[in-house]
């Protein structure tokens, strides 16, 4: 069982907002880019509506409780999660939207990606 200060559990700070350890950079380092995307796709499949092939309000509500143990999410929490990643405004998350959202929610991965893009641009345009 995880201890109260374990990085796998939310911790409470003075502002009472839970903070979570960002495991995506560690997963990316261990699995590599393709492996990480594969795991994100597996996560998508756990949360999606099997008939529609996307994560809907109902599938996220149901699977967040059963798969992720997040049964205390409010309807507003679930709507906000869908809205945050719903780029095409269809009210659901397709696999690409889900993967992009997971990257966006990982500050360390976003910074690493930003650095890689900057380096690539400098290499490409610095060679004139």
From TrEMBL:
Domain of life of the native organism: Eukaryota
EF-hand domain span: 73-108
Keywords tagged on the record: Calcium, Metal-binding
InterPro entries the UniProt entry points to: EF-hand-dom_pair (IPR011992), EF_Hand_1_Ca_BS (IPR018247), EF_hand_dom (IPR002048), KIC/PBP1/KRP1 (IPR044205)
Gene Ontology molecular function terms on file: metal ion binding
Coiled-coil region: none
PROSITE patterns referenced in this protein's UniProt entry, alphabetically: EF_HAND_1 (PS00018), EF_HAND_2 (PS50222)
PANTHER family for this protein: CALCIUM-BINDING PROTEIN KIC, CALCIUM-BINDING PROTEIN KRP1
The protein's name in its UniProt record: EF-hand domain-containing protein
